[in-house]
Design a protein that fits this description.
By secondary structure, this protein is an alpha/beta fold. The chain has 2 domains: 158 residues, Rossmann fold, CATH 3.40.50; 117 residues, no CATH class. Helix content is 40%, strand content 18%. The protein contains 10 helices and 9 strands. A 5-stranded parallel sheet has the order 2-3-1-4-5. Strands 7-8-6-9 form a 4-stranded parallel sheet, with helices on both faces. Strand 2, helix 2 and strand 3 form a beta-alpha-beta unit. Helix 2 packs parallel to helix 3. The radius of gyration is 21 Å and the shape is globular.
Length: 298
């Protein structure tokens, strides 16, 4: 995303549009933006977002940073959102779209806890509304600049992640890079931008002495990297990342998630992710975080 349009005073305006699945945490997200000093509006129909953009351009508006939530509560207006986003971009106000999602099980549990009805299934099963909403929002998810999966996050965890991974790092003008390891048997992450499958490497799971260990233990690293296969993989993968990361920065991307997957997410993916992290650790243009999602499950 660009730095934002300039108002008549010549100062940039930073606009976030927060959307996503009902129950995925949009209320918690807008709270994080409000705590960070953003002018915030909840449940705003898309055409009203365009009007808000005009307000930002008025002299004396005083608004430099804003965040708005829009979702299926907007009814028929929601179909206009993609068009409105295009109009805002053409008008010089380049919004960042933050899309929040969660898996079906997590969403169902949240609706049960709150005893709320799903807006797309007020008289039916919650799961029917979730599936209908997922289909409707597919094109918008593809348009999003940042996708966050909130399935395993509490409200406090989501607010913290938005603040540290998005807002704080955004201010530093660095690419916020997350290297995420996972096990395919537990399901791939939905918010990954790049996914690398390392199940072709030697699997420590089949050695009883290595099975209880993780990809951070020297014995496991030695097993995974034995022979030429891992070495040849690094020779191709690391230069590819050296090429891609500056390209993403030049394109204006502020957050990137690289997912590394093996069968269980405990051995091979962890070894490879930590090797990538060491390779990238000295870069000044990225803010790096490594998350081992399934290491205790594999």
């Amino acid at each position: 995303m660009s730095a934002g349009a300039e108002n008549l005073l010549g100062k940039p305006v930073d606009l976030f549009v927060i959307t996503g699945y009902s129950g995925a945490g949009k209320s918690e997200a807008i709270a994080a933006f409000e705590d960070s000093g953003y002018f915030c509006v909840d449940n705003l129909p898309p055409r009203m977002i365009a009007s808000l953009g005009e307000l930002f351009r008025h002299r004396g508006s005083g608004v430099r940073r804003a965040a708005v939530v829009t979702d299926v509560r907007g009814g028929d207006y929601f179909a206009d959102l993609l068009a409105v986003l295009g109009e805002l971009t053409e008008g010089g106000l380049d919004p960042t779209v933050l899309f929040l999602e969660a898996d079906e099980e997590a969403l169902v549990d949240r609706f049960k806890e709150t005893r709320r009805r799903h807006p797309l299934a007020p008289d039916g099963r919650v799961v029917e509304g979730i599936r209908a909403e997922r289909e409707i929002l597919g094109p918008l998810r593809e348009r999003a600049d940042v996708v966050m999966d909130t399935s395993g996050l509490t409200g406090a965890m989501l607010r913290r992640r938005i603040t540290t991974d998005l807002l704080d790092r955004r201010a530093s003008s660095k690419l916020a890079l997350t290297i995420l390891t996972f096990g395919f048997k537990n399901g791939p992450p939905r918010d990954a931008d790049l996914v690398f499958d390392v199940r072709f490497l030697p699997n420590p799971h089949y050695r009883e002495d290595l099975r209880p260990l993780t990809g951070r233990d020297p014995q496991v690293v030695e097993h995974v990297e034995a022979g030429e296969l891992a070495s040849e993989y690094y020779q191709r993968l690391l230069p590819l990342l050296d090429f891609l990361l500056p390209a993403y920065l030049a394109e204006g991307k502020s957050h990137l998630t690289i997912a590394i997957g093996c069968t269980g997410g405990r051995h091979r993916s962890v070894t490879i992710a930590d090797r990538i992290a060491r390779h990238l650790a000295s870069r000044k243009d990225i803010s790096l975080r490594v998350v081992h999602r399934d290491v205790e499950l594999g």
